[in-house]
Write a structure and sequence with these properties.
With about 300 residues, the protein is of the alpha/beta class. The protein has a single domain, classed as TIM Barrel. The chain has twelve helices and ten strands. Strand 5, helix 9 and strand 6 form a beta-alpha-beta unit. Helix 5 packs parallel to helix 7.
Length: about 300
């Protein structure tokens, strides 16, 4: 049962999408091979694709609808209700595409992730709030029954002010309070224990990626045992699996710096029930890499 929720982060598709593969086709292909949990990771690879244009069109019309209207529309798409009575007639062609997309991915659990400098003082508070609102609305559209938004901060300095970060997180939580969304942040450049402290204090959840703790020489930016002693399973909503060695992140989960046997043992011992998402480096054969990664991890199940 440990790998019932083994899925992928969609940035592993970057090369295939650059070569013209459609997001929806890749999603269906991976679902066919047993990967039903997918985090839609926003970024240039996505925005420069046909699916990125689709998202852009959606974002353009979101602001026309009141938040409660948008929420009702999202639920209607996924429950196969009569969404046509909820949308402006001029937007029907776009929402026909949304309806078709939802029908194709209805067996998947999709979450949403964006890069956002949540550890730093925002340059413009109004723009910052708008970005989070929009991200929450997209997350809800992708999976209203299990909506989740993850923030990853790749731009803030390693040394940051925890008070500023806490103020940002509290503000984000208050945006669209009627949307039932799991709100999570990831350890990216900062020590995981530091992010965990913020998560605990603000009653949020952590997406943990142990590969981010390793530097290219194999040393860690913090003591792993300190983190694992501090974390509780209820603090985690997702665990990302990728492998790293002196060359960087690998295209498959295999031998390297990260001790997956230890991670899987800890999670199983504590009864972890969240998802496990493969975030391999993009390649021309992401499905084959994901399957081989799954086979590699299977041998560590007790």
């Amino acid at each position: 049962m440990m790998f019932d929720k083994l899925g992928i982060v969609t940035n592993i598709w970057a090369k295939r999408m650059e070569n013209g593969d459609r997001f929806q086709e890749l999603a269906v292909q991976f679902e066919h091979d047993g990967f039903r949990h997918m985090e839609v990771r926003d970024g240039d690879y996505l925005r420069n694709s046909e699916f990125g244009n689709f998202l852009q069109e959606i974002e353009t019309v979101i602001e026309i609808y009141a938040p409660d209207q948008w929420k009702e529309m999202c639920e209607a798409f996924w429950k196969r209700g009569d969404w046509k009575i909820l949308v402006d007639h001029s937007h029907k062609p776009l929402f026909d595409q949304v309806d078709e997309f939802v029908a194709r991915v209805s067996n998947l659990t999709l979450s949403y992730a964006i890069s956002h400098s949540w550890l730093s003082v925002p340059r413009n508070l109004e723009i910052d709030n708008d970005q989070i609102r929009r991200a929450k609305q997209l997350a809800y559209l992708l999976c209203p029954h299990q909506a989740r938004l993850r923030l990853v901060d790749l731009d803030s300095p390693v040394k940051c002010n925890p008070k500023i970060a806490a103020e940002n997180l509290r503000r984000y939580k208050l945006l669209l309070p009627n949307y039932p969304i799991v709100f999570a942040v990831e350890n990216a450049k900062q020590p995981a224990s530091q992010i965990l402290d913020l998560v605990k204090k603000e009653s949020l959840l952590l997406t943990y990626d142990e590969a981010n703790v390793y530097q290219l020489d194999g040393t860690t930016i913090e003591d792993l045992e300190t983190f694992w002693q501090a974390v509780e399973i209820r603090d985690l909503t997702s665990v990302h699996f990728k492998q790293k060695n002196s060359q960087g992140v690998l295209t498959q989960v295999k031998d390297g710096f990260v001790d997956f046997r230890a991670i899987i043992h800890r999670l199983a011992q504590e009864g972890y029930t969240g998802d496990l998402l493969l975030e391999n480096a993009p390649s021309d054969q992401p499905l084959e890499d994901a399957i081989r990664s799954r086979d590699y991890l299977q041998k560590y199940i007790a």
